[in-house]
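4.2 Preliminary Data

To establish feasibility before requesting continued support, the project team ran the inverse folding procedure on a target of 229 residues. The structure was first converted into the token representation described in Section 3, and no sequence information of any kind was made available to the design step. The complete token record follows.
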């Protein structure tokens, strides 16, 4: 690698042929180095023809397959199989055995999301479309993370860092746009259901619910930063 040049971020897309192909295009545009793992030999051969893709044949639940995919220290692994249990195993292997920095699982049952998070999966979402949206917002490597999408409602987890303009303000004074609300304030390990008089503090993490793409303005009011930056 040339001196002074940053290494590309690496992502593993494991299983889910159609899902993986859709996400590969997004990650390629973000200049990620993409490795795709697939247990169907014919599909794996097709994936290998995609520009810049390293395709690995095998089941992602097998440690030796992940080793062949050079999972060690990757920035992100996305488990895309149609089996929730397999996706959990894949994420746990990637995180605990291979030191992958962030893991995401596509889940068929949204009710399992909280369990997946308790098991150490960073993101558990129920649609590939949401994965793409989160990636486009740089949410994996930045502070703001997308938690879920329920119908037309988007849910974001927004931390208040040192330079957040909302720190010290009452919730009623944050001038959030219409169709957004703060459903919960997570503070020092406790969950607080806020009201208009709740004063926001440094280190708080806010659960932001939004409709009609209003999260962009809400995040800017709370953090001073744009989702698109």
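Position-by-position output of the design step:
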């Amino acid at each position: 690698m040339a001196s002074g040049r940053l290494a590309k971020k690496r992502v593993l897309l494991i299983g889910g042929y159609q899902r993986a192909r859709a996400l590969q295009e997004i990650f390629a545009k973000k200049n990620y180095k993409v490795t795709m793992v697939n247990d169907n030999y014919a599909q794996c051969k097709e994936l290998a023809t995609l520009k810049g893709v390293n395709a690995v044949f095998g089941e992602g639940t097998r440690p030796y397959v992940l080793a062949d995919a050079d999972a060690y220290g990757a920035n992100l692994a996305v488990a895309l199989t149609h089996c929730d249990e397999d996706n959990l195993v894949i994420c746990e292997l990637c995180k605990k055995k291979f030191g992958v920095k962030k893991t995401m699982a596509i889940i068929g049952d949204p009710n399992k999301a909280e369990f997946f998070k308790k098991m150490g999966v960073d993101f558990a979402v129920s649609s590939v479309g949401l994965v793409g949206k989160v990636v486009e917002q740089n949410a994996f490597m930045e502070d703001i993370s997308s938690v879920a999408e329920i119908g037309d409602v988007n849910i974001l987890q927004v931390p208040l860092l040192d330079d957040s303009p909302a720190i010290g303000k009452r919730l009623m004074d944050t001038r959030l746009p219409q169709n957004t609300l703060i459903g919960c304030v997570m503070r020092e390990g406790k969950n607080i259901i806020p009201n208009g008089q709740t004063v926001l503090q440094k280190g708080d993490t806010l659960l932001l619910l939004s409709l009609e793409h209003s999260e962009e303005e809400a995040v800017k009011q709370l953090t001073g930063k744009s989702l698109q930056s």
